[in-house]
Amino acid sequence: EMKACCTAQLKGKKVIVTAGGTREAIDPVRFIGNHSSGRMGFAIAKAAVLAGADVTLISGVTNLETPLGVKRIDVVSTRDMKQAVDSLYDDADVVIKAAAVADYRVQTPAKDKIKKSEDTLILSMEKNPDILYGLGQRKKNQILVGFAAETTHVIQYGTEKLKKKNLDMLVANDVSAAGAGFKVNTNVATLLFPDGTNEKFDIMDKFDLAAIIIDRVTKIINKS
Length: 224
Ligand code: CTP
Ligand code: CA
Prior knowledge:
Blueprint: E1 14-19, E2 24-27, E3 30-32, H1 39-50, E4 54-59, E5 71-74, H2 78-89, E6 94-97, E7 104-106, E8 125-127, H3 131-137, E9 143-150, H4 154-164, E10 169-174, E11 186-187, E12 189-192, E13 198-200, E14 204-205, H5 206-223
Parallel strand pairs: 1-4, 1-6, 4-5, 6-9, 9-10
Antiparallel strand pairs: 2-3, 7-8, 10-12, 11-14, 12-13
Helix pairs in contact: 1-5
Bound molecules: cytidine-5'-triphosphate and calcium ion.
Cytidine-5'-triphosphate (CTP) is lined by residues 78, 97, 99, 101, 103, 128, 130-132, 146-149, 161.
């Protein structure tokens, strides 16, 4: 079998990938963030470009190098990411949302640096828009792929997200498993599909998983 990477299966297809974590400002010098490295999303962008796609990578703050041939848009907050994704969505064939998106933002970030005074500091936060849910609502012919990082009930929670967000595939990561998650080059994933089938994979390199994800996306496109 030929590798997904070299057969130009996605030639002419516009693929959007989101990667990394979003950050929400507390004041001009501080933020609330998460441990996402961006590696999974960058690997997917690389696999998609190797498959011949026209790839735009919408990335949170990361140190990673942009894969050759990939267009990159840098964003900081969840709302920045939503704006970037939404503006490209109508034209896209595939959207893969690997980013770790901040669910809440600080309600009123301070204009000036917060000085230390009281012994406790309370930050009020409000919910961010769910970017992927919004894409699912206005989906036309796009193939939508989501991610879910879970520590328990991986299949159950993953299936709920797949349905609620109107996805064509969900990559559920068991982040409690050894070799999965944020800081490592490997992942432990189960792919969930709307027909109720799933594919469980052992621990593997993030680039190998990315190639499988791109291969399954190609199969979904060829079926529809
Ligand atoms: N996502 C998004 N916008 C958000 C939150 C999540 O687009 N505001 C996307 C993520 O990029 C991911 C998928 O939704 O592809 C699932 O994210 P996850 O955090 O696992 O699910 P949530 O719906 O946020 O639910 P919870 O965090 O409560 O488990
Ligand atoms: Ca979340």
